[in-house]
């Protein structure tokens, strides 16, 4: 796992956008695994800017998102379908039939999960998976305790995740209790993984990544240790808060 420390969230976003642009230029039909949440918003903004200014071409790109809330229709303002449209898809030229997200309203969520893993395989697998990290170390919506070989599945969201995401909804009660997420096993099949970590709220998770602990299912991001091609871009705020945490725990 390669850990790059950068000055701030803007530099983190710029480095991440550069990696994605380089990949798309090298492999125009790349399969991009995409993430939601606050962390990647700057990266999407810079990709949109680059597309407008430099014309990076996304016509052949396919995208698969990590997760979606159960029960939210694609057009719901809080769905991850809407997030992706708002922050990225509307600004670049990926044909809409090449955007894939799990359907949180499918009649059978379990079948939807199986279909989603099949879809990713049929696309030839993910070339680069973008990830954020939850305060408890979750990746996608894989909460602590998830098996590292799990495929796409339905999860019950932890209280801390619902609290953290309440800022996007009116209140914590409105945050759905369940979601569909790519499993850690699905994520680990990606050929390359780019994990973005920003801000002091990620101190606990970042300190565990820095410690390079053994894979532990209670800390989902530790699954990434076993993957041969993981880059972590962390801003100084996350790194220094993590180091302070290690110091105060010692
Ligand atoms: O980037 P944020 O908003 O801090 O969220 C971190 C992680 O939590 C999630 O939003 C899920 O709770 C992930 O999609 C994201 O990677």
UniProtKB/TrEMBL annotation:
InterPro entries for this protein: Glc/Gal-6P_isomerase, Glucosamine6P_isomerase, Glucosamine6P_isomerase_CS, NagB/RpiA_transferase-like
Family recorded in the similarity comment: Belongs to the glucosamine/galactosamine-6-phosphate isomerase family. NagB subfamily.
UniProt gene name: nagB
Gene Ontology cellular component list: cytoplasm
Gene3D superfamilies: 3.40.50.1360
The protein's role, per its UniProt record: Catalyzes the reversible isomerization-deamination of glucosamine 6-phosphate (GlcN6P) to form fructose 6-phosphate (Fru6P) and ammonium ion.
Alphabetical UniProt keywords: Carbohydrate metabolism, Hydrolase
Matching PROSITE patterns: GLC_GALNAC_ISOMERASE
Species this protein is from: Sporolactobacillus putidus
Catalytic activity: alpha-D-glucosamine 6-phosphate + H2O = beta-D-fructose 6-phosphate + NH4(+)
EC number: 3.5.99.6
Identification of the protein by name: Glucosamine-6-phosphate deaminase
Domain Glucosamine/galactosamine-6-phosphate isomerase span(s) in chain numbering: 11-225
SUPFAM superfamilies: NagB/RpiA/CoA transferase-like
Active site: 67, 136, 138, 143
Domain of life: Bacteria
Annotated pathway: Amino-sugar metabolism; N-acetylneuraminate degradation; D-fructose 6-phosphate from N-acetylneuraminate: step 5/5
GO BP annotations, alphabetical order: carbohydrate metabolic process; glucosamine catabolic process; N-acetylglucosamine catabolic process; N-acetylneuraminate catabolic process
GO molecular function list: glucosamine-6-phosphate deaminase activity; identical protein binding
Pfam families, alphabetized: Glucosamine_iso (PF01182)
């Amino acid at each position: 796992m390669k850990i790059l420390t950068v000055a701030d969230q803007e530099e983190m976003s710029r480095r991440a956008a550069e990696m994605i642009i380089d990949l798309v230029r090298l492999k125009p039909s790349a399969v991009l695994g995409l993430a939601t949440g606050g962390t990647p918003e700057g990266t999407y903004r810079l990709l949109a800017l680059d597309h407008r200014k430099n014309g990076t071409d996304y016509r052949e790109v396919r995208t698969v998102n990590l997760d979606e809330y159960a029960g939210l229709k694609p057009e719901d303002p809080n769905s991850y379908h809407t997030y992706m449209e708002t922050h990225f898809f509307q600004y670049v030229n990926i044909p809409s039939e090449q955007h894939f997200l799990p359907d949180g309203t499918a009649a059978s969520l379990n079948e939807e999960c199986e279909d989603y893993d099949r879809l990713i395989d049929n696309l030839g697998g993910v070339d680069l998976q973008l990830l954020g990290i939850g305060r408890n170390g979750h990746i996608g919506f894989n909460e602590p305790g998830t098996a590292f070989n799990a495929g796409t599945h339905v999860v019950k969201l932890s209280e801390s995740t619902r609290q953290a995401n309440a800022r996007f909804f009116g209140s914590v009660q409105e945050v759905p209790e369940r979601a569909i997420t790519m499993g850690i096993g699905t994520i680990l099949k990606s050929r390359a993984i780019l994990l973005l970590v920003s801000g002091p709220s990620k101190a606990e998770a970042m300190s565990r990544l820095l410690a390079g602990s053994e894979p532990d299912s209670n800390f989902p991001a530790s699954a990434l240790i076993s993957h041969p091609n993981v880059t972590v871009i962390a801003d100084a705020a996350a790194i220094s808060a993590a180091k302070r945490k290690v110091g105060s725990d010692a």
